[in-house]
């Protein structure tokens, strides 16, 4: 009885204290949310402004500041989808991005396996040399690429851009895949060899499914860096393979400033990236750490 | 467990080697070739030895002065980007929710700027910061602050740096978030038992555990901000005057604008060597510290 007494006696005194503590705790719990909210707002407002402009007529854009379209119009989008010089830009971009993804992964997979499983003559030097290509400024390559691809007859084809983007995507893909492959125990390789798997069959049917996450991440990064690049894509194409990013720069300088059309084209280039992100949303965090956490 | 030595592994590396040799080595040799020659049009070339390099590295010449101006601007830009983006990225990563629907939603929104083509990033900010039709430009001018990135160098710099922060801080956030997720709960429980505050937890647990991902973040952010071309080119075109002419912009002007092959090639090589050296030094020092730590941990575990 006497043991219970003090607890009952302190309870009323403890309640207000707990209330204050909860209030401070609530503030402490809300502060990060608020910070995050503000940061996300900072990210989204410029994008909102672009979307906003894409739905306005040029008259409305130039006549004054409106926070949302007063007379929303899809005219800018209609022009893009009915003009082949615009929409073919999107198709050209997708062509070289997909080509680049396929080439990069095809050559990077065996190489990453070699780096993760074996030591061989000059392996460390080779690895750093590969990565050093990721560090080379595209501006350095612009002119020699122009001459090289003209000389071999690939100029103004998706192949030229896809191969050029391999310079920075292949090293990155090797780096990412090596990180993921090193996480797979080597006993699996040995067991497969004992079970009589040939190397190619083992690699494709046993090993690749095990690093499927890594392959996805590598493909995501190849897509990302090929999709966003402008300098090389613009330098290596003129008419037939002109990507959308280059079409946009041309139109800006040509017919004065068609802000609405430019904004609509910009919004349309954001969409593929947004779709890709949505698909990988559950792997983003680990993916951006390149499998190295 | 040590990796077995097997030189046959070269066979697996060969495709990459051939591809990268075609796409990188041949162009690089072209650049080296041009850097030691002079051309007078008509595809006639003359041996110029190290002439371009001597001119480039001497700030008193036209070429050298221009090169060093662009170099300091680029270094200042990279420095500012790292100074803002790394702390901000760490801070934002600490505010991200750890479970629930908010995780995926926040990550998708955060990753969005990273997937926008670079010239569209430029376009977004060009429009957003204009004083006549842009929300930011109009708002700042509405507050009575004179702001016009097309004429005022300081405003141009603020715009370009803000754009880079907007574009790339998310990368640092995502890397740090991955690093934070990898910390076992036991660490936090131990800290709670010790009565450690948020700051102590950050200093003693989170920051050390983030070292590895922060290495990647600093390396990537340095390389990419030092090579930046498209975004500032779209927004300011290198201006006003030469205020935001970074090395890449200057190089493209020299190579594709003026077709000054020898000078451009020499500049390319020096530019490339700077990036390589900085990255190598940074990479070597940080990974050495780490491999020692790993070995130390291994010995601890072995005892």
Automatic annotation (TrEMBL), chain A:
Principal place of residence: membrane
Keyword Transmembrane helix: yes
Name of a matching Pfam family: BPD_transp_1
Localization per Swiss-Prot or TrEMBL: Cell membrane
Gene3D superfamilies attached to this UniProt entry: MetI-like
Membrane topology value: Multi-pass membrane protein
Keywords: Cell membrane, Membrane, Transmembrane, Transmembrane helix, Transport
KW Transport (keyword) present: yes
Coiled-coil residues: none
Cellular component per GO, a single term: plasma membrane
Domain ABC transmembrane type-1: residue ranges: 90-280
One GO BP annotation of this record: transmembrane transport
InterPro entries per UniProt: BP-dep_ABC_trans_perm, MetI-like, MetI-like_sf
Record-annotated membrane-spanning stretches: 34-51, 96-115, 127-147, 159-181, 202-228, 259-280
Family the entry assigns: Belongs to the binding-protein-dependent transport system permease family.
Protein name as catalogued: Carbohydrate ABC transporter permease
Native source species: Roseicella frigidaeris
UniProtKB/TrEMBL annotation, chain B:
TM stretches of this protein: 12-36, 75-96, 103-128, 154-180, 264-283
Cellular localization per UniProt: Cell membrane
Coiled coil: none
Keywords associated with the record: Membrane, Transmembrane, Transmembrane helix, Transport
Record-level GO BP terms: transmembrane transport
Pfam family, one: BPD_transp_1
Superkingdom of this protein's organism: Bacteria
Topology relative to the membrane: Multi-pass membrane protein
InterPro entries: MetI-like, MetI-like_sf, Sugar_ABC_transporter
Domain ABC transmembrane type-1 intervals: 71-282
CDD domains, A to Z: TM_PBP2 (cd06261)
GO CC annotations on file: plasma membrane
Family classification: Belongs to the binding-protein-dependent transport system permease family.
Name of the protein this chain belongs to: Sugar ABC transporter permease
Species of origin: Roseicella frigidaeris
């Amino acid at each position: 009885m006497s043991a219970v007494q003090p607890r009952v006696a302190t309870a009323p005194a403890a309640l207000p204290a707990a209330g204050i503590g909860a209030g401070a705790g609530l503030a402490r719990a809300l502060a990060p949310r608020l910070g995050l909210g503000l940061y996300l707002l900072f990210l989204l407002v410029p994008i909102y402004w672009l979307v906003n402009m894409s739905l306005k007529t040029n008259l409305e854009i130039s006549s004054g500041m409106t926070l949302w379209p007063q007379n929303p119009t899809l005219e800018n989008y209609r022009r893009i989808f009915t003009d082949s010089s615009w929409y073919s830009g999107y198709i050209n971009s997708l062509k070289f991005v997909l080509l680049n993804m396929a080439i990069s992964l095809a050559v990077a997979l065996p190489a990453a396996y070699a780096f993760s499983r074996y030591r061989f003559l000059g392996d460390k030097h080779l690895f750093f040399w590969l990565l050093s290509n990721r560090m080379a400024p595209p501006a350095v390559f612009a002119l020699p690429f122009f001459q090289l691809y003209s000389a071999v007859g690939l100029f103004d084809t998706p192949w030229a851009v896809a191969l050029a983007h391999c310079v920075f995507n292949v090293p990155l893909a090797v780096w990412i895949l090596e990180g993921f492959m090193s996480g797979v125990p080597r006993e699996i390789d040995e067991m497969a060899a004992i079970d009589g798997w040939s190397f190619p069959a083992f690699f494709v049917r046993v090993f690749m499914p095990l690093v499927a996450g890594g392959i996805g991440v590598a493909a995501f990064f190849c897509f990302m860096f090929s999709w966003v690049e402008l300098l090389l894509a613009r330098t290596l194409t003129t008419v037939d393979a002109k990507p959308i990013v280059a079409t946009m720069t041309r139109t800006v300088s040509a017919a004065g400033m068609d802000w609405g059309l430019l904004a609509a084209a910009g919004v349309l280039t954001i969409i593929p990236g947004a779709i890709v992100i949505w698909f990988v949303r559950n792997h983003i965090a680990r993916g951006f750490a390149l499998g190295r956490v | 467990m040590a990796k077995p030595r097997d030189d046959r592994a070269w066979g697996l590396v060969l495709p990459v080697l051939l591809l990268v040799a075609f796409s990188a080595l041949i162009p690089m040799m072209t650049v080296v070739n041009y850097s030691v020659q002079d051309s007078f049009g008509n595809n006639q070339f003359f041996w110029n030895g190290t002439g371009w390099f001597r001119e480039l590295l001497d700030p008193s010449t036209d070429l050298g002065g221009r090169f060093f101006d662009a170099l300091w601007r680029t270094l200042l830009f990279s420095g500012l980007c790292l100074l803002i983006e790394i702390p901000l990225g760490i801070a934002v990563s600490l505010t991200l929710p750890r479970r629930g629907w908010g995780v995926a939603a926040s990550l998708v929104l955060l990753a969005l700027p990273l997937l926008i083509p670079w010239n569209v990033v430029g376009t977004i900010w060009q429009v957003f910061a204009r004083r006549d039709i842009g929300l930011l430009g109009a708002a700042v001018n509405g507050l009575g602050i004179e702001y016009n990135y097309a004429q005022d160098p300081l405003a141009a710099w603020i715009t370009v740096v803000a754009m880079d922060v907007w574009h790339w801080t998310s990368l640092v956030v995502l890397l740090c978030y991955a690093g934070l997720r990898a910390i076992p709960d036991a660490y936090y429980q131990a800290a709670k038992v010790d009565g450690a505050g948020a700051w102590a937890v950050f200093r003693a647990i989170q920051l050390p555990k983030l070292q590895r991902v922060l290495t990647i973040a600093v390396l990537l952010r340095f390389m990419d901000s030092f090579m930046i071309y498209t975004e500032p080119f779209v927004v300011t075109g290198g201006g006003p005057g030469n205020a935001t002419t970074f090395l890449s912009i200057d190089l493209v002007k020299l190579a594709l604008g003026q077709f000054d092959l020898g000078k451009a090639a020499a500049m390319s090589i020096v530019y490339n060597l700077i990036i390589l050296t900085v990255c190598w030094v940074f990479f070597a020092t940080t990974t050495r510290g780490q491999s020692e730590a790993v070995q130390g941990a291994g010995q601890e575990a072995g005892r």
